[in-house]
Amino acid sequence: MNNLSFRQTIFLYLLNQLDGERSVNSIFHILTGKKSSQTIQDIKWYNVTNYFHMFPYWKASAFKEETEDLSKKELIHIDEKLVGMLPEGKLYITNFASTYEWPVFFNGWKYGQAETPFWKRLALLVQCLSYSLAGSRSFVPVFEEEDIQQWLKQIWPKTIDDKRKMADVLFRELIQLLETLPDKDAFLFSYRLSGYRYTGLTLRQLSSMSVLEEDECYFRFQAVIHYLLEHMADTIYLKKAAEDLVERRVLTSTTKKTLHYLNQGFTIEDIANIRRLKRSTIEDHLVEIASEDSGFAIHQYVPETLQNVIIHTAKAEQTMRLKTIKEAIPDQEVDYYHIRLTLAYFGGNHGNT
C-alpha cells in the first residue's frame, strides 16, 4: 500500500472529506480546477476549497488509470454514480493524516488563477534586479510574455539607487515571510528563482534533490505562492506583483454577467430572456453568487423559515445530498433550487451547515 503516488494519496484524502457522496469525475474536476457550477457547489458545501486546482495538469486518461489502480488495490469502490472509501483506504488515510506535514497555507479556489501570473511577475523582477545590480544587461528573461514584461516596465526603477532600494525591500519582504515556513517549502521557492549567473531549478530537478515526488514539489511550491499572496497586504512589492490578479469574489465570467444584471434589479426571468439562457442556468449563477457574497439577499429567494428547515435537515441527516435532504422534508414547499441556494450561502463563506 506504500507505493501510492502523491496524487493518489490526495485523491483518497479528498474522497474521505466528501464522505462517499460524489462521483469520481467530481473529484477530478475539483483537483484540476474546473470552474463549473457543480464543482463550485461541491467545494463550498463540503468545505474543500483548498483542494481546488491542486493538480491542474492531471490528464483525464492518467486520472482514470490511477483511480482504477486504487480500486484494484481495494482502497475504494466505484459505481456508476458515487465513489466511496473501503476500510483499507480509510486506514491508509488515517495513517497519512497523522504524519503528513501540510503546507502552512493553500487555497486553490482563492488564488489558483492568480498564482501563475504572480509568480512570473515576481520571478522576472528578481532576475532583472539581480542582473541590473551586477551591471549586466545580457541575459535571457525567465518569462517573455508581453503582459508580464509590460508590468515590469511600469514599476521598473529609473536610478541605480532606486534599484538597490527596491531589491533590499523586496529581499526583506520575502525573507520575513519565508522564515515562517518549513525549510523544505522555503527551499522549493528560493531555488526556483533565477539571478545573475544562476538559473532557477525546475520542479523535476528539485524533486531529484529531495525525497519529494514532482507532484508534491508542485503542490508545496504553489502553497508558498498562496502564502505570499495571503500575506501581501503589509508589503510593497509583493502587493505590486499581485495587483489586479486577486479578486474579492471568485466568480466565473458568465456569472459575473448575471450579477451585473442582478445588481440593476432584473429578475431571474428578465436575465434569462436578456441573455437567452435557460432559467436553470441563471439559477446556477445565483447559487455561485450566494456562495461568494455575504451580502447576497437569500431571503428574497428562500424564506427564512425554510432556510432554517434545510440547514437543520442537512445537519440531522449528516449529508449534503440534495435528494436525501428533499425527501427528509416532504411536508414543506421545497424544491432543489431552494436547497442548493441555501447550502451554497450557508456552506460557503458565511456559515457552516
Report what the structure shows.
This protein is mainly α and 353 residues long. The protein has 19 helices and two strands. A two-stranded antiparallel sheet has the order 1-2. Helix 15 packs across helix 16 (279-292). The longest helix is centred in the middle third of the chain and has 19 residues, at 115-133. It starts with 5 loop residues before the first helix and ends in a 6-residue tail after the last helix.
Briefly characterize the structure.
This is Helicase Helix-turn-helix domain-containing protein. The chain is an all-alpha fold.
Helix and strand topology:
Layout (H helix, E strand, L loop, with lengths): L5 H13 L5 H9 L4 H9 L14 H13 L3 E3 L4 E3 L1 H13 L8 H4 L3 H19 L12 H10 L4 H19 L4 H8 L12 H7 L4 H17 L6 H5 L11 H11 L4 H8 L3 H14 L11 H14 L4 H7 L7 H12 L6
Antiparallel strand pairs: 1-2
Helix pairs in contact: 1-5, 3-16, 7-8, 7-9, 10-12, 11-12, 14-16, 15-16, 16-19, 17-18, 17-19
Largest sheet: 2 strands, antiparallel
- Strand order across the largest sheet: 1-2
Oligomer: single chain
What shape does the CA trace take? globular
Q: What is the helix/strand order?
A: HHHHEEHHHHHHHHHHHHHHH
Number of domains: 3
| Portion in helices | 55-70%
Amount of beta strand: under 5%
Question: Distance N terminus to C terminus?
Answer: 35 Å
Pfam families: HTH_40
InterPro entries: Helicase_HTH, YpbB-like
Organism: Salibacterium salarium
Protein name: Helicase Helix-turn-helix domain-containing protein
